[in-house]
Amino acid sequence: MTTASKITLVRVVMIPLYLICMYLSEGNAGFWMYFALAVFIIASVTDCIDGYIARHYNQTTDFGKFLDPLADKLLTIAAMSMFCEWGVFPAWALMIVLTREFGVTGLRLIAAQKGTVIAAGWSGKVKTASTMVGLCFMMALPGIEILNWVVIALIVVTTLYSGVEYFVQNWKCLQT
């Protein structure tokens, strides 16, 4: 297993720790919320680190191509689910995110069956980065409703844009 894949696995292992800290915070500012934020930031930064290592040291593997985006999705959806549970993140917005993720994953599976690999596009990377940063703001400054709505709007817009872009650019994969 490559160093890049090991770092990605660390990100996956950090998700339960993050969730425990979020539960202990009960949605309020304080030690547990800020500890959860620190865990989330470290996990998010590992996304950049493992990608850099994989490209720079030629450690790109099929396992890494599978695990890295999965780890990102699990981390961000864990955070959105906690905020949804607390009534801060609307379920409809979470459903948009989940629909996009399942849709793009399905598109990639169909493309793979036809021998085509759909690489991560810039809009998907922007979506992931803006989602991670926005969720950090929601954890750092809990209870600021206007901030929450700005972050939710940013997440929904980048999610919809990147999802549509993936399907438009790869529509030929769905043709029989």
Structural notes for this entry:
The structure is a single chain. The chain is mainly alpha-helical. 80% of the residues lie in helices and 0% in strands. It is built from six helices and no strands. α3 packs antiparallel against α4, α3 runs parallel beside α5 and α4 runs parallel beside α6.
Indicate the topology.
Elements: H1 3-25, H2 31-56, H3 62-85, H4 91-113, H5 122-140, H6 145-169
Helix pairs in contact: 1-2, 1-3, 2-3, 2-5, 3-4, 3-5, 4-6, 5-6
Distance between the termini: 37 Å
Biggest sheet character: none
β-sheet strand percentage: under 5%
- Which spans of ≥5 residues are poorly predicted at pLDDT below 50? none
Q: In angstroms, what is the radius of gyration?
A: 17 Å
Number of helices: 6
Number of strands: 0
Helicity range of the residues? over 70%
* Element string (H = helix, E = strand): HHHHHH
Mean pLDDT, nearest integer?
95
| Net shape | globular
Class per helix and strand makeup: mainly alpha
Concise summary:
The chain has 176 residues and is mainly alpha-helical.
Structural key phrases:
176 residues, mainly alpha, 6 helices, 80% helix
